Amino acid sequence: MALGIAYDGQSFNGWQTQPNGNTVQDILEGALCQFAAEPVATICAGRTDTGVHGLSQVVHFDTHAMRKMYSWVRGVNALLPPTIRVRWATEVSDDFHARFSATARTYVYIIRNEANLAPSWVGRAGWDFHPLDVDLMREAAGYLVGTHDFSAFRSSICQAASPVRTLHTLTIDKEGVFLVFTLKANAFLHHMVRNLIGALVYVGKGRFSPHWIQTLLASKNRSFSAPTFMPDGLYLVDVDYPPEFALPMPKFNLNTPVLPQFLQAI
């Protein structure tokens, strides 16, 4: 069984189960166990950190419970807090794996670039009050697209076997006070998105030239880069799978403006 999950990450200690139980996985599995009347263990497409949000997280699990698809949505939602929602449910073949079958993940990072962060966006958007040069940031972003060793942008506790990732897309759009970063890759390292955003913001502030990004990539040294940016504005918005799995998930269209799609989805 596969489910599409959306959640507001503000009140949770990330996705992955922890002893204190205050994670999205813990809460979801508790509801699934109650609904299915049996133990349920989920595997997700991508583990998100504390404060990070999910609009299109995908999980799979094994179950003996026989329920209609709409019942998995409505029934489990009735057992969840309003900050977590099952968006869709579908049966999948035994060879489907939420993590290893995925071919790409897409994240959106939202920054409100204004003197004071609007209260309604606290916990839902990153914030910086400095004037940010978007053209310089876009030039810097161009150096990141492609296949690289992203060691300079991975957490010190990252457990990935290899730091090499392929970043397919990194775009920056500006609309009013919003800066919208869209990043699509085959996979991401721990804290990679937030570390990329932090470095691009440093370029936007004028602290470094866009070519600094090339220097960071070549250094393969995390200590030379900018601090990890806040989690508040980070959203997992899409996961790609081979078409044969036919998952009923909404897709982000990266060929059209992202902000209207994002605002409609949250």
Automatic annotation (TrEMBL):
InterPro entries: PsdUridine_synth_cat_dom_sf (IPR020103), PsdUridine_synth_TruA (IPR001406), PsdUridine_synth_TruA_a/b_dom (IPR020097), PsdUridine_synth_TruA_C (IPR020095), TruA/RsuA/RluB/E/F_N (IPR020094). GO terms for molecular function: RNA binding; tRNA pseudouridine(38-40) synthase activity. The active site is at D49. It holds the Pfam family PseudoU_synth_1. Its EC number is 5.4.99.12. Keywords: Isomerase, tRNA processing. Residues 6-100, 140-242 form the Pseudouridine synthase I TruA alpha/beta domain. It catalyses: uridine(38/39/40) in tRNA = pseudouridine(38/39/40) in tRNA. It comes from the Bacteria. GO terms for biological process: tRNA pseudouridine synthesis. It is an enzyme of class 5 (isomerase). Substrate binds at Y107. PANTHER family: PSEUDOURIDYLATE SYNTHASE, TRNA PSEUDOURIDINE SYNTHASE-LIKE 1. NCBIfam families: hisT_truA. Belongs to the tRNA pseudouridine synthase TruA family. Homodimer. HAMAP family: TruA (MF_00171). Formation of pseudouridine at positions 38, 39 and 40 in the anticodon stem and loop of transfer RNAs. This is tRNA pseudouridine synthase A. It comes from Pelistega europaea. The lineage of its organism: Bacteria, Pseudomonadati, Pseudomonadota, Betaproteobacteria, Burkholderiales.
